[in-house]
């Protein structure tokens, strides 16, 4: 946590003042109970942790090493979510399922939540919904709604989320937003549309000029043919 949060000054400060630390440590205990069949107890304790920290982690979720939640309030991690090593989430992130109220009995025991591979960073307010994979070192921008797989090293933003960068960046990327200029997918689409409109205008102008030239040629009276006396 110290490596990823400049506000953290010591391990004691983290242990005493970071609700994300309390939630993760509590999850380790509830997950231990869940795996050994004490599921009601695990769920009950996870609800107490949710009340104390504002972070909801289902005890059935799978979470790797060095997991970090910054700020933490409002984070929700579903039962079948899987999180790799060195993953970072910010406040308000949801790792959820889709249509959980539709045929609930048929969905029990099935994979319903996303998998985040190693090194993924998810910005505040992002929603990752469904049983797909966010590949290694991917970045999810704040408030994005991700509904399909994200390639390795890609950055996605928007609703629904679109890929705006594919280059892998090993630097830590706060809030899932890359340093430097980040292309706006809407602005990029408008620019492309503007170029297409200009191309069409040029084509129309060329056709009109050609048509005008053809019409002018048709309106010009033909010159009389001069016949030589020898003919």
From TrEMBL:
Catalytic activity reported: L-serine + acetyl-CoA = O-acetyl-L-serine + CoA
Family annotation (InterPro entries): LbH_SAT, Ser_AcTrfase_N_sf, Ser_O-AcTrfase, Serine_acetyltransferase, Trimer_LpxA-like_sf
Top-rank taxon, per record: Bacteria
Protein keywords: Acyltransferase, Amino-acid biosynthesis, Transferase
Enzyme class: transferase
Skewed-composition ranges (Low complexity): 212-221
The enzyme's E.C. designation: 2.3.1.30
Transmembrane portions of the chain: none
Residue numbers spanned by region Disordered: 211-231
PANTHER family: SERINE ACETYLTRANSFERASE
Entry similarity comment: Belongs to the transferase hexapeptide repeat family.
Protein name per UniProt: Serine acetyltransferase
Organism: Thalassospira permensis NBRC 106175
